[in-house]
Amino acid sequence: MMHLSQSLRREWQVLAADGWLKALLSWVPPLLFLSVWAVFSAGIARDLPIGVVDLDQSRLSRQAVRYYDASPALAVARAFPSVEQGSAALRSGDIYALVVLAPQLEKQALLGHTPEITTFYNSQFILIAKLVKSAMMQAQGTLNAQLDTLMNLAEGNAVLSQALGKAVPIRTQITPLYNSNNHYGQFLVAGAVPAMWQILMVITTIMVLAAHDRQQSLQTWLKPAPCRRLLGKLLPYTMILWMHGLLFLVALYGVLGWPMHGSWLVLGGAQLLTVLACQGVGALLYLATLDTTRAMSLAAGFTAPAFAFVGVTFPATDMPLLAQVWRSALPVTHYLDVQLHQVNHGQHLSEATPQLLALAAFLLLLGLAVLKARKLAAGSNRQEGVA
Amino acid sequence: MSWRELIQQELKAIFTNPSILFTVFGGVLIYSFLYPLPYTNQLPREQQVAVVNLDQSQLSRELERMVDATPQVALTHRAAGMAEAKAMMNRGQVQGLLVIPESFARDLLLGKSPTLAFAGDAAYFLVYGTVVEGLAQAADTLGAQAKVVRMVMSGENIALAAQQHTPIHLNLQPVFNPAMGYIDYIVPAVFVLVLHQTLLIAVSLLGCGQRTLAPAAGQRNYWQLAPAWQLVLVRALIFVVIYLPLVMYYFGFSFTYYHISRLATVSDLLAMTLPFLLAVIGFGMILGHLLPRRELAIVVVLLSSIPLIFSLGFIWPSSMIPVPIQSLVQLIPATPAVNAFLRLNQMGAEFHQVLHLWLQLWGQAIVYGGIAWLLQRRSRQRGMPPQVPAGSS
Asked: Where is the ABC-2 type transporter transmembrane domain (chain A) (predicted)?
């Protein structure tokens, strides 16, 4: 016990001398998590600006415009006298879609000629584009059903339900499972925060070792007992990094009350394995380079693009083999698989086992780091022998 | 110190620094292949869907075939009831469900508008969107067919009926990225960000590294000898010259390689690139002066990447982002740059439509350059590089 308290005190001295490391271990991670959540805190996009070119100026065309404007996701922000002006606004990004209502719209509709309303929507911003597209389709569907029902009633179908049945032959009921209100934040934040957590863990581990190295050469310090000293050094930080992980889990699925169907125990266990994996990556990078900047560059190269590979935005099953390989080399990939399956599907422990085993395989990295530490310690022996 | 000497010293400082070289050339080159890699297939296809067919009529089997025929989904599993289908979803075997209700065919023929139920895994938006799109498309086609059949039965001409089955047809045309491909979506924005982040790291690594280097006894280094304005100017120009080919590599080779549209003229791109690079370089010099140790440059840039990318407005509409964050990211050169390049190169905007972004970049270049000059002058006047105690922040 004496030994433990001594080493903790010594650790505290190292920490006290490095304000940046202290910040990374305390307030920086919650702040980063909070900032990503804040970006998406609105959850659902509302009143996305669209423009209209109404060349018909009839009762029907104005009714259609009102229907689009009434859609919660859309807002008719501007009306243009010509298609050219409207398309310029679309190109400059002022509006997300341009609805063109051709002349004779009402006349053709009354004659039963199926006129066309053309909507150009900006598909460069795909996720926004999908929102605009489905809102447009929904608004048009409502308008069409109403027109159709009216026509059917006018034709003498006295019963409203029958008239409706003729207008809408098949009704559909669409259920977004596991994210029932299509909450944007729930989808992206739940994936982005663990990706950031991985970055934080790898760089914090590098900084912990570097801070020690600056005060006392790591080689000399490791010499008496490389394995025990290295692991003993990492252990207190395992707890802190794990706390950060649990913090965002509790914040998202406890405080914010996002649906959580799985087991906290499995999630916590997966997180612990992830922490150890990332510490292994960080320790190995530092011990292999013994240069903070170089280790940090490599850590950046390894962790920065992780979010693209985790399969939240783009499904992993549609990635090419090479991407799959790179993806499985990232601890956070396996962690996120566990997290999403737990919170959404409430998977049983046995179903989560493959991912947990994959995470456990990263413990090999810690083993390699220990080997490297041994080698360094032996190297310092030899150097002293020569001296 | 002559210009020539200063330029030589600067080049030597940059090209003998492995961390800078790795960040600039390694980073830009590796990311040009790594970032687009997951999106190689552009679109998710053939998402697996389970069907619960409670009707078992010929018509419902026809619907099944139509669903399977869409490129978006593939009917891979069959379940006897909802519970079994739900269990398949939970195991992650399928990404969507289709429930065909009992007496679906009869209700359809009687004009009672039966209800088809779809469900998709909305924990993954793109998957969900794809599943719903595929299922809705098949249902729409079947619905339209049923309607046409009914119109023909009530005596309409078949050619006319096929045209008139809806009162108004909505023709939705995606523009700028017609295939809705993911590479065309992510790469043009992220590549600008990669240029931004690597340049930011490189400039601050150089500045911070030199500032915190223990001085050789009695000697003053070249960056302390040269006047501050001259050093700032030379350094900015050298980094511009290093980055111009890299920008050309991204906008030229990479965009061609990935078939990403390039609607902007070279002169427009160049006009935007210059203030962009200068603004980033000025920002990097400031970071180099403020950070106590050089590796922290990487830490700061790396940690800000994910929040930054979501705040740029191409993933989530800017109008939905809380105002404090919106305002804060306006200070970062990546924000006007990504938006300007997307508008010019992907959306075909005229230069006058992005003029405000161009001015914003020049404003940043001038202000950040000015601050960098003041900080450099202060650090030079101290004669010695200030000894920042390790850890003070």
From this structure: 27-371
pLDDT 10s digits, A27-48: 999 999 999 999 998 888 889 9
φ and ψ of A322, to 5 deg: -60, -40
Asked if A165's CB is within 8 angstroms of B111's CB, the reply is: yes
Helices first, then strands: H and E counts in chain A = 18, 5
User: Residue A198 pLDDT more than 50?
Assistant: yes
CA distance B351 to B346: 13
Residue type, A327: R
What's the CA gap between B70 and B384, in Å, rounded?
Answer: 70
Calculate the alpha carbon distances from B262 to A16, A260, B196, B259, B343 in Å. 52, 44, 20, 9, 11
State the complex-level ipTM. Answer: 0.90
pLDDT at B146 over 60: yes
**C-alpha R_g of chain A:** 29
Helix (H) or strand (E) run with residue A54 in it? strand A48-54
**B344's torsion region: left (phi>0), alpha (psi -120 to 50) or beta?**
alpha
Stated pTM of the model:
0.90
Q: What share of chain A is helix, strand, coil (3-state, %, to 5)?
A: 70, 10, 20
Instruction: Give the 3-state secondary structure of residue A174.
Output: strand
Q: Which residues, 6+ apart, have CB-to-CB distance to A197 below 8 Å?
A: A29, A33, A244, A245, A248, A332
What count of other Cβ atoms lies within 10 Å of the Cβ of residue B81? 10
Cβ–Cβ gap B310/A179 under 8 Å? no
CB within 8 Å of chain B, chain A residues 15-44? 16-21, 23-24, 28, 32, 35-36, 38-42
